[in-house]
Write a structure and sequence with these properties.
Blueprint (H helix, E strand, L loop, with lengths): L10 H11 L3 H8 L3 H8 L7 H10 L24 E4 L4 E5 L9 E7 L4 E3 L8 E8 L2 E5 L3 E5 L4 E5 L3 E6 L5 E7 L5
Antiparallel strand pairs: 1-2, 2-3, 3-10, 4-9, 5-8, 5-10, 6-7, 6-9
Length: 186
């Protein structure tokens, strides 16, 4: 049996999600532009899809790509030097996961904002929760409607994700934060 992207077994998760949605391989094929035969091989872990193909499949199945990029089985520990970096393609950012469990209710991750860097929120269909702890530096979090919060070391904020407008590093040093969120269904 071959493993998926970067040695990650994804077939069972893809098949399970496809069945959960009541989709056929042909329907997923039409949504992704990938052949039914290739999708079948992916579901049976006979081929390793590229990250691009895996992203197309994840989008068609309305699951976050990071759900498929779990690199650890049942081990609950993530060592500081072994944290997987995972892209959020629709948001255009990469984050460092702080959990090995991709399919639980919470998704903790860490990110560093360079001075002046700003992230403009992408509206997702389903609201979810986010909680942020500033580890170093200064971040300005803007929520709708027109609420601005400047947060420094040790400060936290908890909000409904649909209210997020932007996050910006307003300081002169890199700002590191930990975020805990309920993952969106893409």
């Amino acid at each position: 049996m071959l493993l998926g992207v970067s040695g990650i077994e994804v077939g069972r998760a893809l098949r399970s999600r496809r069945n959960e949605l009541g989709l056929t391989l042909r329907q997923v094929s039409e949504r992704t532009g990938l052949t039914s035969g290739f999708l079948s091989q992916v579901e049976n872990d006979l081929v390793s899809p590229s990250l691009k193909s895996l992203g197309r499949i994840a989008e068609a199945l309305r699951i976050p790509l990071f759900h498929l990029l779990n690199t650890r089985g049942g081990d609950p520990v993530v060592r500081a030097d072994e944290r997987p970096t995972v892209p959020f393609p629709k948001m255009g950012v990469d984050v460092e996961l702080l959990t090995p469990f991709r399919d639980w209710q919470l998704l903790p991750f860490q990110r560093v904002f360079e001075p002046g860097e700003e992230f403009t929120a992408v509206r997702l269909e389903r609201a979810r929760e986010e909680w942020i702890l500033i580890q170093s530096g200064t971040l300005e979090v803007t929520l709708h409607p027109d609420e601005h919060y400047v947060l420094g070391h040790g400060d936290t904020i908890h909000f409904e994700s649909s209210r997020l407008v932007s996050i910006k590093n307003t300081g002169s040093e890199p700002a590191k934060y930990v975020c805990m969120m309920t993952p969106p269904a893409i």
